[in-house]
Amino acid sequence: MDFQPDAGLTAFREEVRAFLRAHLPADLAGSQHGVRSPRAALMHWQGILNEHGWGAPCWETAHGGTGWTPQQRLVFDEECAAAGAPTQDVFGQRLLGPVLNHFASPEQKAEHLPHIFAGTRLWCQGFSEPGSGSDLASLRTQAVRDGDHYVVNGQKIWTSYAHEADWIFLLVRTDTSVKKQAGISFLLVDMQTPGITVRPIITIDGCHHLNETFFDNVRVPVANCVGGEGAGWSVTKFLLNNEHAGTADLPALLRLKKQLRSVGATLRVDGQPLVRQPAFALRLARLEAELQAVSMMVQRVAVLEQDHSPTAHVMGSMLKIRGTELQQKMSEFLVESLGDYGAIAYPAESHAEEGDTLPVPAAGIGPGLASAMFFRRASTIYGGTSEVQRGIIAKLLFQL
Ligand SMILES: Cc1cc2nc3c(=O)[nH]c(=O)nc-3n(C[C@H](O)[C@H](O)[C@H](O)COP(=O)(O)OP(=O)(O)OC[C@H]3O[C@@H](n4cnc5c(N)ncnc54)[C@H](O)[C@@H]3O)c2cc1C
């Protein structure tokens, strides 16, 4: 394929840049420092995007989205990352939104879509359970019908940002007498419903991203079941197969490249910028070459997705492995580049407390680097582990 952007895409990039220059408030720029922007920044930015008609960059125009091609979406993500714009709500925007557009009843759409556009309701994903992660179909959280409600009992784990979310999309078992995939349903649940308890899991970076979520006789209207009772597995396959080009998280890689370049230019060794050191420059060049390769593969997968090619699926698995391993390598290099100072985990600015006065080399870059590096260890686990992705490649590509 031809990797040169056509004139239309170049013009689109200019349009996005102009939009960001005009509409991204200075106090929001830079709030993408961590894995996800704080709730207030994320919601504020979503409102701004929505006012401009860009509230749903991944949705088709028929559903009120921008109707952008996968390549345009990449450009949008790249430019937002470069400008330091806040993240969007991945769960509401990218995962649930397309599912609702495809499977939801008119009432469900009317209830939820406007809030996703406007950024007034945040979502979390309740799939994994202790013992049911990669083998999701074995999940045990049960929903038993009682009149026009389900009564839900069970436990979810690793529920990202459940403590900030307003609603959760939840996989439950509604039938134990059939094949395990056929007995699963997909429910939309208000997090304020009595009987839901969220307990934090503090991760290796010292931050609160994850939770255990418990359901104790939680009553959920039957009307909140998406796609019909027992259709949860089909809905989930649709949700998980939705976006393959995004699995490498190119915006995160581009941010890491920017940070590495800043560290190379800012830190000094023997009076010279670090980037003049051959060992640093060589390692940076190698990582940037790898990033270039991943970036070209992302573009390729975006084109395959546009053409609805089945190859996009297996390429998405390859990208997940390559992209997340590269994230880990780049973030480790960043911390190593700080030398002895890298052994200290400076809190990210958003997590800093008053009195945090440790000397930080490359101030403005150093804080949060170590905790981000630790958190990136998880990138080869969430969204499907690398081993599971290799299994998909072996099966789909090599028919093993
Ligand atoms: C940071 C983070 C955020 C997350 N956010 C969410 C969230 O918001 N919502 C949610 O529902 N879940 C979330 N998860 C859970 C995530 O989806 C699971 O951790 C993941 O699917 C793996 O499942 P598991 O942890 O049960 O490990 P297991 O599936 O038990 O795997 C254990 C080990 O066995 C290997 N393995 C398993 N099956 C196979 C196989 N078939 N072939 C080869 N090797 C295999 C795995 O690769 C792994 O090394 C998150 C996880 C993390 C780390």
Secondary structure topology:
Blueprint: H1 7-23, H2 39-51, H3 70-83, H4 90-103, H5 106-118, E1 123-126, E2 142-146, E3 149-157, E4 167-173, E5 184-190, E6 196-202, E7 208-221, H6 232-240, H7 250-266, E8 268-269, E9 272-273, H8 278-306, H9 311-337, H10 369-376, H11 386-398
Parallel strand pairs: 1-4
Antiparallel strand pairs: 2-3, 3-7, 4-5, 6-7, 8-9
The structure holds flavin-adenine dinucleotide.
State the gist of this model:
This protein is of the alpha+beta class and 400 residues long.
Distance between the termini: 28 Å
Helix content: 40-55%
Number of domains: 3
Please outline the major beta sheet. Answer: 4 strands, antiparallel
Strand order of the largest sheet: 2-3-7-6
GO cellular component, one term: plasma membrane
Protein name: Acyl-CoA dehydrogenase
Domain Acyl-CoA dehydrogenase/oxidase C-terminal: 231-396
Pfam families: Acyl-CoA_dh_1, Acyl-CoA_dh_M, Acyl-CoA_dh_N
Outline the structure in words.
The structure is a single chain. The chain is an alpha+beta fold. The protein has 3 domains: 82 residues, no CATH class; 113 residues, Butyryl-CoA Dehydrogenase, subunit A, domain 2 (Beta Barrel); 155 residues, Butyryl-CoA Dehydrogenase, subunit A, domain 3, CATH 1.20.140. The chain is built from 11 helices and 9 strands. The strands form 3 sheets. Strands 2-3-7-6 form a 4-stranded antiparallel sheet, with no helix packed on it. A hairpin with a 2-residue loop joins β2 and β3. The longest helix is centred in the last third of the chain and has 29 residues. It is globular and about 75 Å long. The two termini are 28 Å apart. The mean pLDDT is 91. Bound molecules: flavin-adenine dinucleotide. One of its GO terms (molecular function) is flavin adenine dinucleotide binding.
